[in-house]
């Protein structure tokens, strides 16, 4: 018996297959459009701002501002200045001192690297002859050993390069939380119906000074916004003038970016309540004073910043000379253009 004969059936003819078959027209294709999600930029920004406004850190900062005002009994304009000074003194000033220490330690360990590089080059040249290394093998081993030695020095001095940005890590969150807190008080958030929020709002409307008696309104005179822009530009130019080495391309790019941001913040400050502008001006003024004070070698020794070769003996005179040189260069350009 053949299994092939049993399993294979004779094929039916096409006519037999089609006979008696009822044909139906194929179903029409239903045109469907894919569902799309429409994202609104306004709703996204509003949702993000609401989540920040109602966050726990902002609530603590906002309550701290109200507590300082109630405890001191000062008008709100003076309370804003005092709160800003206290917040920056307890947060950003210690971070700025620590950052100066990290920068000094990095410079000190960089002075040890030339001897290490010289020794590694000799060892690499010896290994090439002894072990018949190729140029690529020698370069890979040399770079790996050099990085290992640098990492050892960084660990020894506890001065990771990422710590040179520690002031920004502390200052930016503080700036955001303080700004959102003042905005909440102006808009009586997070609970507009509470008596405390209404009292705070009323006190802000009466707690101004001079040309801004109402701190919930914008500064129509533009004194505070322009002052903030000028102070921020002064900080940038002072830091740039205090450098003893030629600025790198990346440093010049960052300097120009911060200059642009300082100018762009002026119209922004002109559209926010004056209590917020007052906080921004006070914070910038504190930053300027902080940078000036920490430039002093005597202050650096007092707070424990080690002395390094690049430190200026007379930093204020150096900055003044830099400003004078730039001023003379600018005047000469104007004179040439006028001709």
UniProtKB/TrEMBL annotation:
Question: Which GO terms of the cellular component aspect does the record hold?
Answer: mitochondrial inner membrane
Q: Which UniProt keywords apply?
A: Membrane, Transmembrane, Transmembrane helix
Compartments (UniProt record): Membrane
Its membrane topology: Multi-pass membrane protein
Q: Where is the Membrane insertase YidC/Oxa/ALB C-terminal domain?
A: 76-295
Q: Return the similarity comment.
A: Belongs to the OXA1/ALB3/YidC family.
Name this protein carries in UniProt: Putative inner membrane protein cox18 mitochondrial
Native organism is Culex tarsalis (Encephalitis mosquito)
């Amino acid at each position: 018996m053949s299994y092939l004969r049993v399993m294979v059936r004779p094929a039916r003819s096409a006519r037999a297959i089609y006979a008696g078959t009822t044909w139906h027209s194929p179903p029409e294709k239903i045109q469907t459009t894919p569902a799309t999600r429409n994202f609104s930029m306004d709703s996204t920004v509003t949702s993000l701002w609401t989540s920040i406004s109602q966050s726990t850190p902002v609530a603590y900062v906002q309550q701290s501002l109200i507590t300082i005002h109630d405890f001191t009994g000062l008008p709100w304009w003076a309370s804003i200045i005092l709160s800003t000074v206290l917040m920056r003194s307890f947060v950003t000033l210690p971070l700025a001192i620590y950052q100066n220490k990290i920068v000094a330690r990095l410079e000190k360990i960089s002075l040890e690297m030339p001897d290490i590089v010289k020794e590694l080059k000799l060892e690499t040249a010896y290994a090439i002859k002894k072990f018949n290394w190729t140029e690529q093998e020698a370069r890979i081993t040399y770079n790996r050993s050099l990085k290992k030695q640098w990492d050892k020095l960084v660990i020894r001095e506890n001065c990771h390069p990422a710590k040179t940005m520690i002031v920004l890590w502390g200052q930016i969150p503080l700036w955001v939380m303080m700004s959102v807190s003042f905005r909440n008080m102006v808009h009586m958030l997070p609970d507009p119906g509470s008596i405390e929020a209404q009292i705070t709002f009323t006190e802000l409307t009466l707690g101004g000074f001079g040309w801004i008696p109402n701190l919930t309104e914008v500064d129509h005179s533009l004194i505070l916004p322009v002052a903030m822009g000028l102070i921020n530009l002064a900080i940038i130019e002072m830091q740039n003038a205090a450098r003893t080495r030629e600025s790198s391309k990346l440093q010049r790019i960052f300097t120009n970016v911060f200059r642009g941001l300082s100018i762009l913040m002026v119209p922004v400050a002109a559209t926010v309540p004056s209590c917020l502008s007052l906080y921004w001006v006070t914070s910038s003024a504190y930053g300027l004073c902080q940078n000036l004070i920490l430039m002093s070698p005597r202050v650096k020794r007092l707070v424990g910043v080690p002395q390094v070769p690049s430190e200026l003996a007379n930093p204020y005179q150096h900055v003044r000379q830099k400003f004078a040189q730039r001023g003379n260069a600018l005047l000469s350009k104007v004179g040439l253009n006028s001709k």
